[in-house]
Design brief:
The chain has about 325 residues and is of the alpha/beta class. The protein has three domains: about 45 residues, Orthogonal Bundle (Helicase, Ruva Protein, domain 3); about 150 residues, CRAL-TRIO lipid binding domain (Phosphatidylinositol Transfer Protein Sec14p, 3-Layer(aba) Sandwich), CATH 3.40.525; about 70 residues. Helix content is about 50%, strand content about 10%. The protein is built from 13 helices and five strands. It has a five-stranded mixed sheet, with no helix packed on it. β1 and β2 form a beta hairpin. α6 packs parallel to α7 and α11 runs antiparallel to α12. The chain is globular. It comes from Batrachochytrium dendrobatidis (strain JEL423). Pfam families: CRAL_TRIO, CRAL_TRIO_N. This is CRAL-TRIO domain-containing protein.
């Protein structure tokens, strides 16, 4: 499980990553450990590693092209924004398992993007656009899946949720989903009009569809050059090289755990600096591991996810 945890961190500082689970469980260590273990079991059963490896390849293209939800821009507190357009949710051509995989891929991408230095927070502001949304766009199954995933497997990632231009028919749906939300999450929900969005997100960071100045998010299929590029990156790496990278990554995690335990016990000669060095090794090895475990996404092509490992093969749109 330790190595799966290492992959789930995507090179983030281990202390920062684990702290979210402690905060989510009110600083009760046993509860936080149980939450962390359940998260790792879910990742294994849901196939998160395979989702990252294949990225958008097997997903439902018509759903992705609707751009129902996506991350881009920042709010006035430096959080990344997640725009959700309810009226683009079409259950008539929905492939449920692929839709759920897209939600997970989007969450994984956001967790990696949030490690970039321009973001002042590792949480996100969600903007749920309910204009022109009718009862046909309400999907309790998809909503419950998203809330369950967000609260239990990606804790402490929501900074604020803006519900924009909610029609009267949404009140019934809100009463249905409200009990699914942790009270702490409920307190982060704010109902606003379209005009009030600018109080939280500057118009320069709001998409044009919501009256802002930022270009609307679009989905672009990966060009042949990108597909060939990732294939080439992987094929040029021998099995020996792959094994060496994996071995170094695992050794780094073992070293971090051993150093942390020694530091906690007050072992002579082991200070927090030794832990930081071990953490840096994990981050460095994860970068080397990237082409083996992940593939580029539309966030790379949009210039939102700046990933050194894929810089040479991604074409910006």
């Amino acid at each position: 499980m330790l190595y799966e945890l290492g992959l789930a961190m995507h090179g983030e500082d281990p202390d920062v990553y684990v702290m979210r689970f402690l905060r989510a469980r009110k600083w009760v260590p046993e509860d936080a450990v149980n939450m962390l273990v359940n998260m790792l079991r879910w990742r294994a059963s849901f196939g998160v590693r395979q989702i990252l490896l294949e990225a958008e390849g097997p997903l439902h293209k018509s759903e992705m092209k609707r751009c129902q939800s996506y991350f881009c821009g920042t709010d006035k507190e430096g959080r990344i924004c997640c725009f959700v357009h309810a009226n683009r949710h079409n259950t008539s051509d929905l492939v449920r398992n692929l839709s759920e995989k897209l939600i997970v891929l989007t969450m994984e991408s956001a967790c990696m993007i949030l490690q970039q230095p321009e973001f002042k927070s590792t949480t996100a502001t969600m903007l749920v656009d309910l204009r022109d949304a009718g009862i046909q766009h309400q999907d309790s199954i998809a909503t419950r899946f998203m809330l369950n995933v967000m609260q239990n497997y990606y804790p402490e990632r929501l900074g604020r949720a803006l519900i924009i231009s909610a029609p009267w028919i949404f009140s019934g749906f809100w009463q249905l989903i409200k009990p699914w939300l942790d009270p702490v999450v409920q307190a982060k929900v704010v109902f606003v009009s379209r005009e009030e969005v600018s109080q939280y997100v500057d118009i320069s960071q709001t998409v044009k569809h919501l009256g802002g100045e930022m270009r609307d998010f679009v989905y672009t299929d990966a060009p042949e050059s990108e597909l060939n590029g990732i294939t080439k990156l992987r094929s040029e790496m021998s099995q020996t090289e792959r094994d060496d990278i994996w071995a170094s990554f695992k050794q780094g995690l073992d070293e971090y755990v051993a150093t942390t335990l020694a530091w906690c016990k007050g072992t002579d000669g082991v200070d927090n600096g030794a832990r930081l060095i071990a953490a840096k090794r994990i981050q460095s090895d994860y970068v080397r591991l990237t082409p083996i475990v992940r593939a580029p996404t539309n966030y790379h092509r949009m210039g939102i996810h700046r990933d050194e490992a894929f810089k040479s093969i991604v074409t910006l749109v």
